[in-house]
Amino acid sequence: MVEPQNHSAMTTLQKLERWADDHRPSWLSFIRALLGIFITYKGFQFMANIDQLQHLTNSLDLSFAGVTLAHYIVFAHLLGGPLLAFGLYTRFMALIQIPILLGAVFFVNSPHRNDLFGNSSELELSVITLVLLLIFLFIGSGKYSVDYIRHKMKDKKISKRKKQVHTHA
C-alpha cells in the first residue's frame, strides 16, 4: 500500500516539474547553453595547459593526487559542458561541476593565485559560474532541452501503454 502513495507523490512531483518547465522563461535555456559552452571552453583551456593545472592542483596540498584531480577537472568540463549546453542530464552535469567551482572560488582564485589562468576577474567568473550551476541543479534544464524532449517522449509512451491496458481490460 505504501508503493501507490510513493507513485502518486512521484507523479505529482513530475507534474510539478513539467509545469515549471512549461512556464520557465525561455532565456534561462539560452543562459544554460552559454554556461555549457563556457565550461567546455574552460575544459579545452585546462587541457591545453594541463601541466600548469597539475602544478596548481599539486600545490593545493590535498590528500589525493593532483594529477588525478587535474584530469578530473578536464574530463568533467569536456563532458559536462556540451551536455549542459544541450540540456541533457542537466542536474547531474551541474552537480559534477560544483565541486570544481567551489575549489576555484575558495582555493584557486584567491588574490595571491590569480596569475595562473587569468587576472582577478577569474574569481568573479568562477562565482557567477558556481551560482548558475546551483540554479540549474535546482531548476533543471527547462523546456528547450534534450531532457525535456526525452521526458515528453517517455510521458507519451506511458499514456499510450495506459490506453492499451484500458482497451484490453
From the structure above, extract its key features.
169 residues; mainly alpha; 7 helices
The total count of strands amounts to 0
Provide the structure class. Answer: mainly alpha
Chain oligomer state: single chain
Low-confidence stretches: none
What's the story with the biggest beta sheet?
none
Q: What do the pLDDT scores average to? A: 83
Q: Could you estimate the helical fraction of the residues in percent?
A: over 70%
Order of H and E elements: HHHHHHH
Number of helices: 7
The geometry reads as elongated
Question: Can you walk through the features of this model?
Answer:
The protein is mainly α and 169 residues long. Helices cover 80% and strands 0% of the residues. It is built from seven helices and no strands. It has helices spanning 2-23, 27-48, 50-59, 66-86, 90-108, 121-139, 146-168. Helix 2 runs antiparallel to helix 4 (66-86). The longest helix has 23 residues, at 146-168. The radius of gyration is 20 Å and the shape is elongated. The chain starts with a helix and ends with a helix. 24% of the residues are buried. The model has no long low-confidence stretch (mean pLDDT 83).
